[in-house]
Design a protein that fits this description.
mainly alpha; MetI-like fold; about 0% strand; BPD_transp_1_N; transport; cell membrane
Length: about 325
């Protein structure tokens, strides 16, 4: 097991290195001059050239990449071309907002998907099971931003129970922070919960056809206790794969949801940096998002080993 984790760690590090090269190369070949964009169209050529030298844009691309990655490894993402402020502290603050949103959204999805998917599988021949499956199918077709707009209209505008947007740090006011997090997390979690419900249903249905579960029921265990004691762990193995993919989807979906609810997360920062053509900031944000997806895949691989004894023995 230790060897497998070491091997997957090496794959993770190689993936991060490859991702950093791809991100840097892709943004480096984009047309236009970042110094010219940052200074505006009225800047003199002398000022543009001086700015290029200040940010190292006149150096070879290999040297620029090595400087950038050397700083990233020490937590220094450089200085913004537009605001002239360090990017690292901004990334750290915005990342906290996005992680709270994604974590809460995944929690909502799991709370919805695990019980409803299990019920839909156990009662798949009954009207209640068909109803759950139909609702899950409907939820898959709803985009997260549309779900967010509907939730705002109902719970913020008409009922006035929750704020329609904004962000309060949890250290300042935990109650207000929680109230502001509910709607954006629900808009992310409801859609992903509908997707995950279908996969949980399929996984539980497959487990129910296994001999060991039929034997447990033949010994007198009722369907739900038998499934809880002997089936859910095996059903979790394929669900973990989908869960990892959904975490990556939540990271991407958070970009739109943050704009809908005016949250100061990585998504909002990315949109603003793209609009200002602040390529160094864009590089940092994209790299953080890509590394986040790679870390999710790494955790999924480790969970495989923990959930499936056959992988530990191999």
């Amino acid at each position: 097991m230790t060897l497998a984790i070491v091997r997957r760690t090496a794959i993770l590090l190689a993936g991060v290195l490859a991702a950093s090269i791809v991100v840097f190369a892709f943004l480096a070949v984009l047309p236009g001059d970042s110094a010219q964009v940052a200074l505006g169209v009225n800047a003199t050529p002398e000022l543009v050239e001086r700015t290029r030298q200040e940010f190292g844009l006149d150096r070879p691309l290999v040297a620029q990449y090595l400087d950038w990655m050397g700083g990233v490894l020490h937590g220094d993402f450089g200085v913004s071309y537009v605001t002239r402020e360090p990017i690292g502290p901004q990334l750290l603050d915005r990342l906290g907002v996005t992680l709270w949103l994604v974590g809460a959204g995944m929690l909502v999805a799991l709370v919805i998907a695990v019980p409803l998917g299990t019920v839909a599988a156990v009662r798949h021949r009954k009207p209640s099971g068909a109803l759950v499956s139909g609702l899950a199918q409907l939820g898959v077709a709803v985009p997260a931003f549309l779900a967010g707009m509907i939730l705002v209209q109902v719970f913020a505008v008409r009922l006035g129970w929750l704020p329609s947007g904004g962000w309060t740090p949890p250290a300042h006011d935990p109650v207000e922070w929680l109230r502001g997090l509910i709607l954006p997390a629900a808009s992310l979690g409801l859609v992903q919960g509908a997707v995950l419900t279908r996969y949980v249903r399929t996984a539980v249905l497959d487990v129910q056809r296994e001999d060991y579960l039929r034997t447990a029921r033949a010994k007198g265990l009722r369907p739900y206790p038998a499934l809880l004691r002997h089936g859910l762990r095996n059903a979790a193995v394929p669900v973990v794969t989908v869960l990892g993919l959904q975490l990556a989807t939540l990271l991407v979906g958070a970009v739109v949801v943050e704009r809908v609810f005016v949250l100061p997360g990585l998504g909002s920062m990315l949109v603003d940096a793209v609009a200002a053509r602040d390529l160094l900031t864009v590089q940092g944000i994209v790299l953080v998002l890509v590394v986040g997806v790679l870390l999710v895949n790494f955790v999924v691989d480790v969970l495989y080993t923990l959930l499936d004894p056959r992988l530990r023995r191999s």
